[in-house]
Amino acid sequence: MTSHSRACALALLFLAVGACADEDSPAQSAPDVVTDTSADVGVDIAADAGTSDIEPEVTAPRATPPTTTVYVAREFNFSRELPGGIVEGFDLDGAVSNGNDGTGCDQPDYTNAAGETGIDNQFASLLPVIESAGGAALPTLVQSAINEGDLLIVAVFSGVDDWLNDDDVTVSIGRAVGAPIVGADNTLQPWQTLTLDINEPVTRITGGRIVDGVFTAGTETLPLPIFVFTFRFDVTLHGALIRAEMTETGPTVFMTGGAVTLANILDIARTPGIQDRIPAALEQLGPLISDLSVETECDSLSVAASLTLMPIYLFNPPSE
């Protein structure tokens, strides 16, 4: 499979795309901007202080996190339906839809592995269609794109006083460039140095919270410029939510979800090399499974993706 055909096949999975560029044309560049957004998610934590006549046990304090802590996604996977109808994702519309109650564009919601209901992730039902059209090897292509330095999504956490409970955390999401070091396990090695791509937007999300080791935040839009095999794909999540599992030393699994418009999905379906197989199916199927509204009523699909994070250094971390 050529680089051009592999990129267009991979584009099927990335939902929204400006265009599948011709190999001879230069990649587009986005303006060097920083988007300030805020989130009001999570709950406040209040600790009750007590007294005792017993001498307290002295333990070593947890190390204070550095001002800027940087992570890169070494694995990237869109959430899909698991046995038993389990699907990971977010409740993006605040409703638990059963398919005929007038909510969620009359699409039934999913339940995740923790038993939470109201999960919106209609893209999970679209993945089998994409794979049946020739995208079965897409997970392998995604990992190759990461290892070759094309798909380097970075998350920069700042303002963290405690990795397990903190009511004011900022996360900045952008793209890194460089020649990554890959280990024997076929994933990126930790603590290597990459460079922030200053030609791409950095989305700075303030007001995030960590409660009992779970980080949550949200933003109105989350652009994810993705470069694969010299091609550029612009993915924009609307009403994006973020959740990350924390340890005492930092985040591990990072999940984000949001809405992507059907118009963006059809843009990619009409890309040369794909249009002969996919567009008719998407044009018919898309409106039947849309569950969210961004610009007009029921014009979008919900989606969720998980990223496995690993600590690195950035030569030029984003400024506050």
Characterization of the model:
This protein has 320 residues and is an alpha+beta fold. It has one domain. Helices cover 16% and strands 33% of the residues. It has five helices and ten strands; from the N terminus they run H-E-E-H-H-E-E-E-E-E-E-E-H-H-E. The protein has helices at 3-11, 123-135, 138-147, 262-269, 279-289, and strands at residues 34-38, 68-78, 153-158, 166-177, 193-196, 202-211, 214-228, 231-247, 250-261, 300-314. Strands 1, 2, 3, 4, 5, 6, 7, 8, 9 and 10 form a ten-stranded mixed sheet that branches. Strand 6 (202-211) and strand 7 (214-228) form a beta hairpin. Helix 4 packs antiparallel against helix 5. The longest helix is centred in the middle third of the chain and has 13 residues, at 123-135. The chain is globular and about 50 Å long. It starts with a helix and ends in a 6-residue tail after the last strand. The relative contact order is 0.24. Mean pLDDT is 78; it is low at 3-61.
